Predict the 3D structure of the following.
Amino acid sequence: MKEFRGGTAVVTGAASGFGRVTSLALAERGMHVIAADIDLEGAERTAARAGELGGKGSARWVDVADAAAMEEFAAAVEEAHGVPDLVINNAGIAVMGPFLETGAEDWDEIIGVNLVGVVNGSRSFGRRMAERNRSLPRARRSGHIVNIASAASYQPVRSLSSYCATKAAVRMLSECMRADLARDGIKVSCICPGFSGTNIAKNARVASGVSAEKAAKVRKWSEAGLRMRHYPPEKVAARIIKAIERDEAVVSINLEGHLSHLVSRVSPSLGRLVARVPAPF
């Protein structure tokens, strides 16, 4: 995808974080951005700002974990704007806590958003892209799906078992999708950022088995860590744009993203050792 201007992009989790800054970067390039989020007010703010930056913006409430809701959303987008050129499955949450204190409800929620949400978005919009492309000559086929994973997809972390597991699943899902959807002219990229200055730690759930006192300590520790890293999410958005332009398969972002990937390939045992570093639980 080389030309953004005049195209349509759907971004989930667009109320804040990577979703918001990527939506705005696409709007600056002249795209109509459909900002989707369970936080409708936040999505509306993103859409309004997108309109101020030279593109167009629309907002939509959607729960990505709800397959029927995502199908309804995709149908509404197609009816109003046609099949989108770009879909960014960004919506995600974090659950922090030891494995044995992470309850069934915690697993259901994080799998629903982080993994099933990506499946739902990719299926609903990917099917429409494929149906459109099959009626076109191969040279005119288009459509790009971007799935946001994490550097945590490479590196085990003792206090983030559910998060690491779902993000690793998103990375492998993306690889499978890229191979499968190529026949229909649909490109797929997976983005694996390291730490960045988003609200993911502030909004993260602490596992249901962790005491309230310990949960407050963990949240404070996590937020402080992200502030110290101070890697702007705008840099992540710029790299996502580049990945789309270059049609890159899997993209690691920032030092810890590249380092985690390297360690996972060269010395997995070192990664396992790092995973044992004590956390404030």
